[in-house]
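INFO  loader      accepted 1 record
INFO  loader      residues=362
INFO  predictor   begin
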Amino acid sequence: MGAYILRRLLLIIPTLFGIMVINFVLTQFVPGGPIEQIIAQMEGQGDVFEGIAGAGGAPTDETFSAGAEDYAGARGLPPEFIEELEREFGFDKPPLERFVSMMWNYMRLDFGESYFRSIGVMELVVEKLPVSITLGLWSTVIAYVISIPLGIRKAVKDGSSFDTWTSALIIIAYAIPGFLFAILLIVLLAGGSYWQIFPLRGLTSDNWESLSLLGKIADYFWHITLPVAASTIAAFAGLTMLTKNSFLDEIKKQYVMTARAKGLTESRVLYGHVFRNAMLIVIAGLPATFISVFFGGSLIIETLFSLDGLGRLGFEAAVARDYPVIFGTLFVFGLMGLVMGIVSDLMYVFIDPRIDFEKREG
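INFO  predictor   done
INFO  writer      dumping tokens
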């Protein structure tokens, strides 16, 4: 097992490197870089894309070193100022040199500083990460708390009216995108058009500091209810069906029929024999479920509910073309996903020691 873990850890390096290469190359073809953002603001356009539309197309990062005349809307600014911006942001160097320098800094855990926030990228990530982790953890926990007993019940009542109508609800829940469900919750329960039951923004109220301990706890759960509900819906649907199918597969096996033939009660058979084997794939997939919720819901959910987490940070950085923040958050997301994949494998072994990944690879 140790050799398998070592191989997986070593694979993180080329995989993460490939992710960074692909995304760095893609940014070279995206119009409206950080210098154009600054120029657009100084020219009073407000948005760099207005200048792009008016100019019939804008240069990519590869053209930053071509001179001030290449920038849409830069005619009113001195060329010396543009050249100084290029030097400050590092765009006076070729893309390959910039990428190699960036990866060398990342190897030393130096993620640089945001172009527009005057703060280190690592400081920003550390500041925003707890919000995203909180949202992902609560969504994952609630999904498991609902899905496991519901899935077991559906397996026991397979083919009944209960199984039929709950399956219909699950299919609907699975089909609804998280962001669409979030908008529906906002419209219905956050003062969009109907009831003002839950707050629309943030994780805490303005008077957070003046609240008692119980008041702070209640205020926190009051704010997080809608975002967590929107993040949970897809994971809950998939987990329920996974639990049901896992139990159905186990119930049909020979050892279950043998246990019943010995006179054991159905409850003893179900929870004493079937449960451990059926839950293997469900519980071992906990890290993967957390990562899917963390990645899939953080961007849109955090933006819709104005939660100051990594997803919203990445979105704002992408709009502003804040490349250090974009690549820094991408690096953190990629590293977390790869590490959690290893943790997921370890969960399988922990739950069922009979699993040996090294023999399977051989």
